[in-house]
Structure prediction request, 485 residues.
Amino acid sequence: MKVSLIFPKPPEKGFFSVKDAEQYVKEKIDFYGFPPMGILYLATYLSENNFDVSIYDQFARGASINDTLKRIKHEDPDILGFSTITTSGTGITSAEIAKRVKEEINPNVKILFGNYHATFNDTRILNKYPFIDACIRGEGENTLLEIAEKTEKGHGFEDIRGVSYRNNGRIIRNEDRPLIENIDTLPFPNRKLLGNVEYKSEVEGLDISLGNFATASSSRGCAFQCTFCSSAMFWGRWRPRSPKNIVEELSLLENQGYQNLYWVDDNFTISKKRLMELSYLIRKEKIDLKWMAEGRVTQSSRELLTAMKHMGCKIISYGVESGSQRVLDWYNKRITLNQVYDAIKNSKKVGIDIILANFIVGAPIETREEIIDTFNLSLKLDIDFPQFHILGIIPGNWIWDQMVDAKRINPDECWEVGTAILNIPLSELMARIKETHRKFMQRPRYISHQIYKILKSRYRQKAVWYNIKNIQRWDIWNRWKPFWG
Ligand code: B12
Ligand code: SF4
Prediction:
């Protein structure tokens, strides 16, 4: 019994069914990637249960559909699973590959779709694509294991919780699978299964991996319910791993030669108590890994940030989202602009090396003035780089439900890649993003500050030197050109 798992590449035309989106896609999605932790967890779990599993990261490899088909033919799996995300349109690439696999390689292979896209669009996918056998909703480990075990015995999907499938032309949605109670019980991801892909982490064209780079997950889910985010709807609640269990994995990573890490958690900082304990254990075990995580401005006391710094935090990326309190409240973000300023002040004070902020523009209720407020806020904050995203309205976030109810979008037209409802044209929004980036980086105070920070921070010196050494690998000029005109 062979199981192959694919992390697909976005299609050329994915991402938002709105005018001018193609240009946005080109600029937004680069063919680099982090290790696909979802299928890595699944593959590890299955191989620990004695199944033969392989992973193919089409996204990070930048592989064509033909190359991916060749690989699938070579693997000759009995079960072929695709990890699909709506906003990147990877459901479309996966369907294209799946169709050709059934037609050209093996009509009997069981084809599964998993991840967020499959969870929130299971019926739509099964209706549209007759060659897809099942969609796996939510957490995948136990569902996929049960499918593999039952397939081996010649059984179908009947009664396997978390599965939606077709039976005599009818779509059956089996009941939901309960979440794994204690995620410490999961085996540590076996990163060898990723093969020879060299993963990187970058911020606007600059390689910040600085050596061997890995990702890790210290928790699943989030306790908040921001209306643009799918986390709470997907996972239901926040489940942490224990500090002891995390430290065991970190020691292993260090022994395997990893130096840098990105926490893929939706909300890494949610429990101060857990992080304080983790920080203590990391120092006790003398683990020296540098890492980056996403932060919430409401969870950014000096005490917590100091503990994070002591345990290797070099980069923190805050979800600031908007410069308008009205828009923040509409997102149910449960933060204030004062908390944003405080979080950034505290991060700077304790000496986190790089502070990033994420912003969302283009909410359906947002006026041009409010969008400009957001751009202006990014210029006022003492951050190292702002990252702007256009609000994606996709199945699995509350804004989608709201806009469907209000008949402002037709789900049949845009469920596959999501959409945006913009009050200003996308081309204007993109021009304003570029303009803000340019203004941000051309401020003399910013430039002198960055030079000062490089002189002060060994991590930054290392980053600069690392990028100079590897300059031929990075398309820095093309990525930065827009900022300079
Ligand atoms: C790391 C990350 C990235 C990385 C790398 C992606 C990668 N290689 O994994 C980068 C930076 C490239 C990235 C980019 C984007 N991302 Co991203 N990303 C994440 C993040 C933070 C972590 C993913 C992860 O490792 N999770 C941990 C693992 C264990 O969970 P998991 O992936 O969900 O997998 C479980 C289940 O989903 C299921 N499963 C997954 N795959 C499969 C496959 C099969 C066959 C089966 C049976 C089950 C199954 O089983 C797994 C184990 O239980 C998530 C948020 C999150 N914490 O999940 C967002 C997230 C996945 N990203 C998101 C988005 C929107 C994007 C972008 C579109 C952002 C943008 N505007 O550019 C791009 C698209 C890129 C792409 N090609 O898909 C959204 C997706 C929303 C949605 N409903 O589709 C998420 C959920 C963030 C959020 N909270 O809204 N992302
Ligand atoms: S945006 Fe962050 S805080 Fe809000 S629900 Fe998603 S993960 Fe949680």
The first strand starts at residue 2 and ends at 7.
